[in-house]
UniProtKB/TrEMBL annotation:
Keywords: Oxidoreductase. Residues 12-189 form the Ketoreductase domain. The keyword Protein biosynthesis does not apply. GO terms for biological process: fatty acid biosynthetic process. This is Gluconate 5-dehydrogenase. SUPFAM superfamilies: NAD(P)-binding Rossmann-fold domains. The keyword Oxidoreductase applies. Belongs to the short-chain dehydrogenases/reductases (SDR) family.
């Protein structure tokens, strides 16, 4: 293996769920820069078209979009059969609504867990079936979270779904290694997006959180690019079942 070329994703096809904005958009861009052709998904056709156009303008032709709500397993199977086999799946689509645990109702729980955990499993299953039938193996990367391993008030459903994703990463990595499919996770620390934006409006919260991050700042979306490209690439060919936390040192210091 030549280490200089081992990070290239040239000739690879990647599917990024929830690529219309935030982290998914940034990861799609990173995969394109590494040479992959990328399909992004989202629930809203207009938002999807806008994201595809923006990525095409910034990174060139290797981008398409597919409408997909990951809570609908039939849609997942339809999208995978429409786009054909992929080499890389990034299970990024996710949702959160902070809510005191005494107030969480079944609908809220189901929305969060169905999107973050059930959706990720069925996307992984559909992608893995396509990888197995193409006989080429592949790489799956699940978006975990600090709440996978730290208790955060108001995040019972979200934290449960993200802890579940760590378990899913372990289980699938063990089961699909013999098919040449590696399954890893990345766990972003604090990144300002639509999902988390409400926190960043509170200067006291920002100051307190930043003080807990050894590298002294919140994450920028580009900070995630190297990790996703690495885990997707042949450079990580002997790495499976791992979650890489990209948090400026937060977890190591608390
Ligand atoms: P955003 O809210 O900015 O983006 C969420 C993305 O997920 C959108 O593209 C949205 O697409 C898509 N999405 C949401 N629900 C569904 C659904 N049911 N079906 C298909 N797509 C869906 O969030 P982030 O970019 O911040 O988060 C991306 C991932 O990273 C999530 O899994 C999140 O849990 C995780 N994460 C984020 C952190 C952060 O600090 N921001 C920290 C740790 C983890 P659309 O609305 O267009 O359908």
């Amino acid at each position: 293996m030549n280490v200089m070329t081992a990070f290239s994703l040239s000739g690879k096809r990647a599917l990024v769920t929830g690529g219309t904005r935030g982290i998914g958009f940034a990861l799609a861009k990173a995969l394109m820069q590494a040479g992959a052709s990328v399909v992004i998904t989202g629930r809203d056709a207009d938002r999807l078209d806008a994201a595809v156009s923006a990525l095409r303008e910034e990174e060139g032709a290797g981008i398409t979009g597919c409408v997909l709500d990951v809570t609908d397993t039939r849609q997942i199977a339809g999208v995978i059969s429409a786009i054909g086999p992929v080499d890389i799946l990034v299970n990024n689509a996710g949702t959160e609504q902070v809510c005191a645990s005494l107030e969480v109702d079944e609908k809220l729980w189901d929305t969060i867990v169905s999107t973050n955990l059930k959706g990720a499993f069925f996307c992984a299953q559909a992608a893995a079936k396509s990888m197995v039938s193409a006989g080429v193996g592949g790489a799956i990367i699940n978006l975990c979270s600090l709440t996978s391993c730290v208790g955060v008030p108001g995040a019972a459903a979200y934290g449960s779904s993200k802890s579940g994703l760590v378990g899913l990463t372990h289980a699938l990595s063990a089961e699909w290694a013999s098919n040449g499919i590696r399954v890893n996770g990345i766990g972003p620390g604090y990144f300002e997006t639509d999902l988390t934006g409400v926190f960043y409006q509170d200067p006291a919260w920002c100051a307190a959180m930043q003080a807990k991050i050894p590298l002294g700042r919140f994450g920028e979306l580009e900070d995630l690019a190297g990790a996703v490209v690495f885990l997707a690439s042949p450079a990580a060919r002997y790495i499976t079942g791992q979650v890489l936390y990209i948090d400026g040192g937060y977890l190591a210091a608390i």
